[in-house]
Amino acid sequence: MSVTFVVEDRVATVTLNRPERMNAVDAATERELEAIWQEIEARDDISCVVLTGAGERAFCAGADLKGAETTGLDYWSESRPNGFGGLAFRRSLDVPVIARVNGYALGGGFEMVLGCDIVVASTKAAFGLPEARVGRLPLDGGMVLLQRRIPHNLAMGVLLTGRRFSAAEMQSFGIVNEVAEPEELDAAVARWVAEIVACAPLSLRAIKQTVNRTGHLSPAEAQGLRTPALVKALKSEDALEGVSAFQEKRAPVWRGR
């Protein structure tokens, strides 16, 4: 398998497992990722996802061009409604996703990072959209996502040069939440995971679903939208448990209902 998927203590770890190919994504890997995201969406025992790449060199170097026979136009015409890796602009996944960026996040790899909610990167990580340097385009999210995340001139600096940017630079742009030395990367990710899992599972889903579904609305319109996850969370046993635990000065026991 080119992707490993493990769930433990409400945390799913999704690992691109093609280190010999810099964890580049081919057609088979794309299908595996889509199946994994669909499974996570269908489960209620996952509060957080960590997405990373195997080995020390790469998070994901993008699409695997080795032996590629399709033209850029053919690639663009293929249906990928959720963006690169099934994640870049997926809006049906209501579980928080942390990108653990251990190395190169280039092309589609960077697009997958843009599809995550929190980004923790190694000081050795490098980000970029180099497609223009090989006569291609960032078709699966890069051109349409980056301009919506950071100032125009910063986005164009990434898109029009194809050069690599450090984790520190991406943190200054607002793309990366935390930068850690390689030996401290897992500890940094674990801190974010622990803080997320400490929250009520239904609250997490409601927050992400509301953010996903209201970005195009005015604040007033968004405030009035009753997303299914929001209503479920407000009516849940966990909503009562959270208040009780606060009043009793104890840690809440979440039941996800």
Q: Could you explain how this protein is built, in words?
A:
The protein is an alpha/beta fold. Helices cover 40% and strands 16% of the residues. It contains eleven helices and ten strands. The protein has a six-stranded mixed sheet with strand order 1-2-3-5-7-10, sandwiched between helices. The chain is globular. 41% of the residues are buried.
Q: Roughly what fraction of the amino acids lie in strands?
A: 15-25%
Radius of gyration: 19 Å
What's the main sheet like?
6 strands, mixed
- For the biggest β-sheet, the strand order reads 1-2-3-5-7-10
Mean pLDDT: 92
- The portion of residues assigned to helices is 40-55%
Count the helices. How many? 11
Give the overall silhouette: globular
Order of helices and strands: EEHEEHEEHEEHHEHEHHHHH
End-to-end separation in angstroms reads: 34 Å
User: How many individual β-strands?
Assistant: 10
Low-pLDDT runs of 5+ residues are none
